[in-house]
Amino acid sequence: MPVFNWVALKPSQIDGTVFTELNDEKVLQELDMSDFEEQFKTKAQGPAVDISALKVKATQKAPSKVTLMESNRAKNLAITLRKGGRSVQDICTAIETYDQQALSLDFLELLLRFLPTEYERTLIGKFEREQQPLEELSDEDQFMIRFSKIPRLAERMNVMIFLGNFSDTAQLLMPQLNAIIAASMSLKSSSKLRNILEIVLAFGNYMNSSKRGAAYGFRLQSLDALLEMKSTDRKQTLLHYLVRVITEKYPELTGFHTELHFLDKAGTVSLDSVLQDVRSLQQGMELTRKEFMRQDDSPVLKDFLKVNTEVMEKLQADSKTAKEAYESAVEYFGENPKTSPPTTFFPMFMRFIRAYKKAEQDIELWKKQEAAAKEAESSPPGSQDQPELPIQKAKRQQMDMIAELKKKQMVKEPLIYEGKDGAIEDIISALKTVPFTARTGKRSSRLFCDVSFNEESPL
């Protein structure tokens, strides 16, 4: 059969869920899965098989071996044992000695699903009373017989899983509890935050006094409304105005958010789930102590209790402190701890802090723009103080170059008029007196020559 890619829950994750009320094995017993296997088999399974023919052949065979388990359950157990990669004896010995190195946590959690049922224990007892040979049983049934002989099997399995998960679970829970404690205490002890809320209350009462009357407090979600209320010219919000007032009149309050710690981390914590996990760890610790009292010669249990008892006590103390600190902070700000989880309570302050910082940036930008506008108005249009644009600079350089070339040309022009006996001056005078012919673009050579000869005719 192909693999169904779902996200499976671990046994420790289904406590209190609907899955504890479901019995998938009962469904498999009630249904004929042959059609399903035919419809969803993989190509590696080969061509379709005639199920009815197989059933006929099965009836003609010798009586099947004795079975102690339902067929699908036996198949699943066989798959699990193959994943473990160890012999029946090695698996059972590891469970009896709490050997966590021999068996992985994943394998233990899978194997926990195959604890012998009362019906299977009844069949095993009947099989042993009849003294039938073990060779008649499948490998899975033989494993189940050896598996059922382990004293307090369920308790041992649960203890082993608890031992393997304790360290990681504790390291996961401690930072979450610390974040709740730190965030709750910093909110409640911040004097700057109290003063800012006082200013918000004052402005709110001032705005509502003529219509709704004075209020003694407000819900924290009302802080979001500071961004929705805009001024008459629609250029700023009520929060912008409050930030201006605080900056000018109460500058000591501007850095109020520096007194608040771990709000972002605390806002992601599900406190109820964390407290439930701590209680589960405590129950596992109690079960481990009971097992150690029954089997005090186990070095594994002895070392675990010696190292982790203090850790468990700290977890319990921190969980109690976190619960009390959080409830106290929520009630302090007029909210209800039952309806305001950390994922709702702390983000309200985080949104306000982000909006406050954004308003500060907006006001600073507006001040710079106003200063630049005033400076532009006060400077004359042709002031040299104004920076020269790249286009203006290039044009100025071009004009300077043209002026330089003209200057050089004016220096050389007198050389053109230098000639013997003033001949060149005479030629220029002639050019001025002879008309220009537009059609040819040339002057009359005849007239030019006549003028020249006339001037020299006395010779």
Automatic annotation (TrEMBL):
Stretches assigned to the DAD domain: 417-449
SMART domains in UniProt: FH2
Gene Ontology BP terms: actin nucleation; cell migration; cortical actin cytoskeleton organization; regulation of cell shape
Region (Disordered): 370-397
FH2 domain sequence ranges: 1-382
InterPro entries (alphabetical): DAD_dom, FH2_Formin, FH2_Formin_sf, FMNL_animal, Formin_Cappuccino_subfam
One MF annotation (Gene Ontology) recorded for this entry: microtubule binding
Matches recorded under Pfam families: FH2
PROSITE patterns registered for this protein in UniProt: DAD, FH2
Cellular component GO terms, alphabetical: actin filament; cytosol
Protein family per UniProt: Belongs to the formin homology family.
Protein's name in the database: Formin like 1
Organism of origin: Calidris pygmaea
Organism taxonomic ancestry: Eukaryota, Metazoa, Chordata, Craniata, Vertebrata
